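Handout, page 2. Input:
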Amino acid sequence: MGDDEYKLFETLENFSEMLMRYNSAIREIRTKFEVLNDDLSLRNSRNPIESISSRVKKPISIAKKLKRIGYPVTVGSIRDNLNDVAGVRVICSFVDDIYSVAEMLAKQDDIEVVCVKDYIKDPKPNGYRSYHMIVEVPVFFSDRKENMRVEIQIRTVAMDFWASLEHQMRYKNDNAAAKKISDELKTCAETIAATDLKMMELRKRIENQ
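Output:
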């Protein structure tokens, strides 16, 4: 095996190991949310979490993002400069459930919250709403412990519905109707947000009867 082939093999091996680490971190976070959901369902007689999904960013997406932000495409650069390689999405029933499960996760003594972006209280200009956290979680491997970063998105069913459809229907900026479509999508997001709050209010009224 020549030097070039050996370097390529070594790079691929290191990349595969890195993806394994991120997948392991995802399993740690998913388990934490599943345990919280089971515990809360017993205490409150309902499940605050509707579903949990996860993904590791695809290699081509990782490379494109690193190039876009001006960093080299290496295993070390991925670890140092990207926080969203591992992602977990948690879908909750109500808006207050989002803040409850986020707070409970943050209080766990092996979780370090790196940053929070609350797009529910401060939506993006297009109307997007979600609660984002970057956390570090320790993962125990055969010969070491390593703190891995995971991006967590927590949103209601309605918020997720809007975000999924907005992504599917994403329009081209040079389209003459782009501004009108953008305004209508934002109106839909505001309607959905108002419905979320109304549903939460109705639930509380039912619980207080």
